[in-house]
Amino acid sequence: MSVAGFIRDILPLLWSGLISGCLYGVGALGLVMVFKSSRVVNFSHGNLACLGAFVVYGFSSGSLLSLSWGSAVALALGIAAAIAVMSYALIAPIVFKSDLASTIATLGVGLILQGAVQLVFGADIVNLDLPLPRFSFSLGAIRVSSYDLAVLVVTLAIVGGLFVIIERTKLGVAFRAVSTNPFACEVCGLNLRSVHLFSWLAGAVLGLVAALLIVPTTFLSSTTVPSFMLQAFTAAVVGGFSSLPGAAVGGVLVGIAMNLFSFYVSPEFMNTFLLGVILLTLNFFPNGLLERAIGGRV
């Protein structure tokens, strides 16, 4: 293969990997938010995001209601937030007793949510598109679409918004304090449950946003979004569950790595590849690949 041919192949792969990696990063941010505050790996993350995406579909397609896409998203966000509150209320008594038991409990919550999706919406595959204008343009060998630009804008807005909240608000200061030393915060009178609830609500919103952005590239079913969360989980492991910037950067790294593996090796072994990445990272870089680069800062 010539150098020109290699560049012609690699640039589109890197670009599409960046776009998909942004989605994995957004999903990973939701996982890391919950883990940093409550030390719980929320395995119901994908199931809740899936339910929210189905609510948007039901309210905008006419199967439940005939609302505009924006109104359907607003209602779905409210429902996802309410379910996140109920989920945390269910798990909260266990959180302060055992991290492992709390993590296992999220598996049960996830199965309940998956059953609810199948009960209400069935097991059929549906399409859920974004209301975006259709256009694209070329930058050399890279083809940029309106969808790509939407993903980049939303991702940058989310990362910027989280930075402002966590670095510039009292709630963000409380979140950082609880993430660092929850025992000292409790001694000082800080309400740990309120900080936990904030992170669970933020995680639910981030998961739904990621689901709404990823579904148009595939399809929506009761298993699509939970399967997508394997990529988000890998991104969180690669970037480090103790770092929000690491989760975002880890998402991009995983997205690019997946594209290269799919193109040069085989897409059939993608899940095996992701599990291998998780195992290697946990063995050699248990705090994430980016620990030394960006440290353990929130």
TrEMBL record:
Q: Name one GO cellular component term.
A: plasma membrane
- Xref: InterPro entries: ABC_transp_permease (IPR001851), BCAA_transport_permease (IPR052157)
Q: Which organism is it from?
A: Bradyrhizobium centrolobii
Stated membrane topology is:
Multi-pass membrane protein
Spell out the subcellular localization from the entry.
Answer: Cell membrane
> By what name is this protein known?
Branched-chain amino acid ABC transporter permease
What the record says about family reads: Belongs to the binding-protein-dependent transport system permease family. LivHM subfamily.
Membrane spanning residue stretches: 12-35, 47-67, 73-96, 103-126, 146-166, 198-220, 232-257, 269-290
- What's a single GO MF annotation on this record? transmembrane transporter activity
**UniProt keyword terms in alphabetical order:** Amino-acid transport, Cell membrane, Membrane, Transmembrane, Transmembrane helix, Transport
> According to the UniProt entry, where is the signal peptide?
none
- Pfam families named in the record: BPD_transp_2
Q: Which domain of life is it from?
A: Bacteria
Gene Ontology biological-process annotations: amino acid transport
